Amino acid sequence: MELGIDIGEIDVVVFLGTPPSMKSFWQRLGRAGRKNAGACLLIDNEDLIASVGGLANYINRPLEPNWLYLENRYIQYSHVLCAAVELPGQAGGDARLAIFDTLPKSFRRLLDNELDPKEPVPNDLYELKQKAQAGPHQEFPLRSANEPNFKVNGRFGKSLGGLSYSYALREAYPGAIYYYMARPYRVVQFNFRDGAIRVCREKKWSTNPVRRVMVFPKFPDGVLQHFAAGDSFLIETEMQVSEQILGFNEQRGSKREPVHMYGPNSVYSQRSLNRFFRTTGVCLYFPKVNLQEQTANTLVEAFCAEFGIQDRDIGSGEFFSRVDPEGLVETRFRGLCIYDATNGSLRLTEQLAESFTRVVELARELAARRNEGSAVEQLGSLAQVAESLSPVTANLVRGEVLEKGWIEVISPGETGIYHGDGGRREEVEILGVRYTPKGAVYDVRSQDPNLKQSYGLRCVEPIFGVTKTCLWNPDTGEMKPQTGAHQS
Q1: What confidence tens digit (pLDDT) does each residue in 333-363 have?
Q2: CATH of the domain spanning 407-481
Q3: Torsion angle of alpha carbons 369, 374, 377, 381, nearest 10°?
């Protein structure tokens, strides 16, 4: 109800719980009272209004700031491809490009190269380039930019809405109970290649996905902010995120069914669904504080409430890296990560890094109101460490400048991510690299151990902080290690 729906006959708005932000509160409240006097009933089931000193104080809270992040390279390039189609037919030379001067310089560089190609398209953007051949204006929806979109179809092909891939993994994965217009449907088929989800009517049960999240920070080249205290650190950085749906839990009234896992015996799916994307987020490494999942969720909830962010735009999980933040030491780091759930990032979590102490204190107050003693204790310990954090000056160690004739490739035996048709992502093992008349390819072993395939170098991406790379000479087939820091 925040879409500006203007139905004058609405007289009453009922809130079950307080909205996630004051902007949401006023937007939803504004649906009533268009033609006649309106009324609002707010059911404060978490005592938030009482905690801020009553209704008057709640209503007088300031609106949260808006955040605009223009550096998302995938959104940039999808717009570049559209602009490149339109511009050649216009007159005016360089003057026609002046309208883009207010955008980031990276947008203009991509556009200039698209209009007058002088450099190869970066590997992570190449998939968009291929997709745009069918017409960029039709291929890039405003809601999800470059991620796959799915149409939900019921009996006889009846349309029951559309979902981006990230929403489908929350609401319409194989076997899920998908609600449309308050009616429940069971997802019986998930066709990735065709972008179609088939459902049938079901009883009013509910399902929740069984998820596995792994985050791979880009240390050190992607570090945006770095704070440390002893062996603890808080780092905002670029990263890759793998979100896998392995199965689901189902509840029928008060009865919880056994967990359904995908695999050979599943009637819904033979394999997990994986969303692998690039974004930014905040890595929290506090070895002396045992942050449990409930405490981490409270931290995310407090952050979203303070900055007016929808929880669907934020994700959390465990980060993993084989190198330290400066890229100097081969080790193993694991810790909590809170990240932007949008491919390419909206950099919402920048505010978490800058206001971490305040967010921890708000989370502790929230846990105290709920009488969550364990979370209060953990957040208290976290607050003590957070207060001692101080900025760290970057001391980046970059990879070597490549010699002429040598190409950086994934080392044999290492794991990479294959970018398949339609946006599918799959983990593959690199068996070797070779040159063919159609270009250089990786020989890989996929999830099927009996199937060996070959993919172009552009189609397989190394995993930050995990995948080791080396130098390869296409003319001689020779390989040699890279000098300096661990490469990925």
Answers
A1: 899 999 999 999 999 999 999 999 999 999 9
A2: 2.30.30
A3: -120
Angle of helix 293-307 relative to helix 373-387, nearest 10 degrees, comes to 70
User: Residue ranges per domain, the chain?
Assistant: 12-59, 73-139, 149-204, 213-255+270-391, 407-481
Distance CA 39, CA 32 (A): 7
pLDDT digits (tens, 9 = 90+) for 304-327: 988 888 888 999 999 999 888 887
Token reading at 375: 């979370």
Question: Running DSSP on this structure, what letter comes out for residue 388?
Answer: T
For every residue of 389-431, DSSP letters joined together read -EE------PPPPPPTT-EEEEPTT-EEEEE-GGG-EEEEEEE
pTM over the 0.85 mark: no
CA-wise closest residue to 2 among 24, 21, 35? 24
Question: Of 294 and 284, which is predicted with more confidence?
Answer: 284
Take residue 340 and report the two structure tokens written for it. 């932007």
SS3 453: strand
CA distance 488 to 485: 9
Q: Amino acid identity, residue 2?
A: E
| pLDDT (0 to 100) of residue 485 | 43
Q: Mean per-residue pLDDT for 87-112?
A: 80
- The CB-side HSE value for 41 (13 A sphere, CA atoms) comes to 5
Residue 72 has pLDDT above 70, yes or no: yes
116-130, 301-315, 415-429: segment of lowest average pLDDT: 415-429
Tokens 């994965």 identify what position? 173
**Smallest Cα–Cα separation from 237: which of 335, 167, 384, 120?**
335
Cβ distance 378 to 292 under 8 Å?
Answer: yes
Inter-residue contact 289 to 382 (CB < 8 Å): yes
Q: What span, in angstroms and rounded, lies between the C-alpha atoms of 233 and 449?
A: 39
Concatenate the DSSP letters of all residues of 154-222 into one string: -GGG-EEEEEEHHHHHHH-STT-EEEETTEEEEEEEEETTTTEEEEEE--S-EEEEEEEEEEEE-TTTT
pLDDT above 90 (res 410): yes
